[in-house]
Design goal:
502 residues; 2 domains; 19 helices
C-alpha cells in the first residue's frame, strides 16, 4: 500500500469519526423547523389582530391563539426531552461534557423563553392559574444574565395578572418581549393603570403592525403555495409519462446518460476526502477559524460572542469562500492531468432548456421535500439540529447582513456545491454504478456532510432532484438555478418572519 493511500485511509477514518460525532451531537439540538413554525405562529397572531379577531377566519379555521398555544407547548415538550437527554449524557460521561453543558444551558434558556410566551397565551385562554405556574418555573431559573432578564419578565407578568403593579413594568416588557406578546403585556399594564390614552395608542399601533403582518404572512406563504400547486402538476406529468409512455419517459431514460470518466475511484476518493473534509472541515473548521477567532480576541480585543448579525454574516461569508476555494483547488489539482475533458464535464451554458429544468425541478422538489420534512419532524420529535446560518438569518434585519446571507446561500453555496457534488462526484460515480445509483449516492453524501441528523432525509430528496436535473441537462446552470431558488426561498421566508418579530 502506497503512502498516499495510507494517508487517504487515515483521513477517511478521521472524517467518518468526525462526521459521526457531529451527527450524534446534533441529536440534542432543536430542529430549526420548530423555530420557523413558531415564527410563523407569531406572525399569524399579529395578523389576526387586523380589523379584530373576526379576520382570523381569513387566515385559519381555528382560534389562532389556541393554535399558537398548542404549537408552543409541543415545542416546549421537544426542548424538555432534549434537556433530559443532555443531562443523561453529561452524567454518563462527565469528562467530555463541556459542549453538552453549553448546549444544555441554551436549551434551558429556550425553555424559559417558551414558558414566558406560553403563560401569556394561557391568559388569553382564561387559564390564569396555568399561566402563573408557567411563569413560576421561570422565576426558579439559574443566575445567568439571560435567565435574570427572563425571570424579571416572569415576575412582572405574574404581578400584572395578580392585579398588582410591579416596579419598572413598562421598560421590562418593552425590552424583553416582542410583537403580539409585548402588546398583551402592555395592554394589561395600561388597563390596570387606567391609562386610556396609551391604551388607545397601543391598539392603533397594533392595527398598523397587524396590517403589515397580514401582508407578510400572505407573502411568506405565497411562494410555497404556488410551488406546491405547480410541483404537484410537474410530478403528475412525470408520473403519468412513466405510466403511459414508459420506454421514452424521463425517469426510465436517465440510466442511459453517462459520462466518460478518465480517472479511477482513488481520484474521486481523494477529492472528496481531501478537498471537502481535510481542507474544508478539518483545516478550516478546526484550525483556521478557531485561530482567527483567537487572534480577534487576543490581538484586537474583539470578543466573537459580541458579534452583531452583520459581523456573523460577514464571518460566515468569508469562511464559506475559503472552504469553496480550498475544495475547488484540490479538485483542480487532482484532475488537471486529465484536462481538457469532454464538453459534458463542468458545463455552464446559457443555451438549452436549463431555465425550464431549474424552475421545474424547484417546483417538483417543494412538495416532496416539504412532505419528507413534516414526516422527519415527527420522527425526530423536533430534535436533530439544523444549519446554524438559518437562525442567524432569522434574526438579521440589517441590510448589509441580508445581502451577505443572500450572496453566501443563494450564489456561493449553489455554485460550489453543484460543481462539487453534481459536476464532479455524480459523473465520477457512473464509472462504477448506474446513473440512478450515482444520483442516490451523491445525494446521500451531499445530505450527510451538512452534519444535521434532521436534515439527512430532506436534503437527500433535494439532492436526488438536483442530480436528476443535472443528469438530464448535463448543464450545471440548471442545478445551480434550482439550488439558488431553494436557498433564496428559504431566506425570503426567514427575513419576512424575522422582520415581524419586533
Amino acid at each position: 500500500m502506497t503512502a498516499k493511500r495510507i494517508l487517504l485511509w487515515g483521513l477517511t477514518l478521521v472524517a467518518i469519526a468526525a462526521i459521526a460525532l457531529d451527527l450524534i451531537g446534533s441529536w440534542n439540538q432543536p430542529q430549526f423547523q420548530s423555530r420557523l413554525e413558531l415564527s410563523q405562529t407569531d406572525l399569524l397572531l399579529q395578523a389576526a389582530q387586523y380589523r379584530g379577531d373576526s379576520n382570523a377566519a381569513v387566515l385559519t379555521d381555528r382560534d389562532p391563539q389556541k393554535t399558537a398555544l398548542e404549537a408552543y407547548q409541543e415545542t416546549r415538550s421537544s426542548v424538555e426531552k432534549a434537556i433530559s437527554s443532555a443531562q443523561t449524557q453529561i452524567e454518563a460521561s462527565p469528562d467530555s461534557s463541556k459542549p453538552l453543558t453549553v448546549e444544555l444551558a441554551k436549551q434551558k434558556t429556550l425553555r424559559d423563553e417558551l414558558d414566558i410566551r406560553i403563560g401569556i397565551l394561557q391568559t388569553q385562554q382564561n387559564q390564569v392559574d396555568a399561566a402563573l405556574k408557567s411563569w413560576a418555573a421561570v422565576t426558579q431559573s439559574s443566575q445567568t444574565l439571560a435567565s435574570r432578564n427572563l425571570r424579571s419578565t416572569a415576575e412582572t407578568l405574574t404581578a400584572l395578572w395578580q392585579n398588582t403593579l410591579p416596579p419598572r413594568a413598562e421598560p421590562i416588557l418593552k425590552q424583553n418581549l416582542t410583537g403580539w406578546f409585548r402588546n398583551r403585556g402592555l395592554e394589561k399594564l395600561y388597563t390596570l393603570e387606567q391609562r386610556s390614552n396609551e391604551l388607545t395608542e397601543l391598539r392603533a399601533a397594533e392595527q398598523q403592525s397587524a396590517q403589515q403582518a397580514f401582508v407578510k404572512w400572505i407573502s411568506a406563504n405565497a411562494v410555497p403555495t404556488i410551488a406546491i400547486i405547480v410541483g404537484f402538476g410537474v410530478l403528475l406529468f412525470v408520473g403519468g409519462q412513466w405510466i403511459f409512455n414508459r420506454k421514452a419517459s424521463l425517469l426510465v431514460g436517465t440510466n442511459s446518460i453517462r459520462w466518460t470518466v478518465p480517472w479511477d475511484y482513488e481520484i474521486t476518493w481523494q477529492v472528496l476526502v481531501v478537498g471537502f473534509f481535510a481542507v474544508g472541515q478539518l483545516l478550516l473548521g478546526q484550525v483556521v477559524v478557531p485561530l482567527s477567532l483567537l487572534a480577534l480576541r487576543s490581538t484586537f480585543q474583539i470578543d466573537p460572542a459580541t458579534f452583531t448579525t452583520r459581523d456573523r454574516a460577514f464571518f460566515a461569508f468569508f469562511t464559506y469562500i475559503l472552504l469553496a476555494a480550498g475544495g475547488l483547488s484540490v479538485l483542480y489539482y487532482s484532475i488537471r492531468r486529465y484536462l481538457p475533458l469532454e464538453n459534458n464535464w463542468f458545463r455552464f451554458s446559457l443555451r438549452g432548456r436549463w431555465l425550464l429544468w431549474g424552475i421545474g425541478g424547484y417546483a417538483a422538489a417543494y412538495p416532496l421535500v416539504a412532505g419528507i420534512s413534516w414526516l422527519n419532524e415527527k420522527i425526530w420529535q423536533g430534535r436533530g439540529g439544523s444549519n446554524p446560518l438559518l437562525s442567524i438569518a432569522l434574526e438579521g434585519q440589517d441590510t448589509i447582513a441580508i445581502i451577505l446571507f443572500f450572496v453566501t446561500a443563494a450564489i456561493a453555496a449553489p455554485f460550489f456545491e453543484e460543481t462539487f457534488f453534481r459536476g464532479f462526484l455524480l459523473p465520477s460515480l457512473t464509472r462504477y454504478f448506474s446513473t440512478w445509483q450515482s444520483i442516490l449516492i451523491s445525494a446521500l453524501i451531499f445530505a450527510i456532510v451538512h452534519l444535521s441528523l434532521s436534515e439527512v432525509l430532506p436534503l437527500t430528496v433535494l439532492g436526488i432532484i438536483l442530480g436528476f436535473v443535472y443528469t438530464r441537462t448535463q448543464n450545471l446552470m440548471a442545478s445551480v438555478l434550482l439550488h439558488a431558488l431553494w436557498n433564496s426561498g428559504t431566506l425570503l421566508a426567514l427575513f419576512l418572519l424575522g422582520s415581524a418579530a419586533g
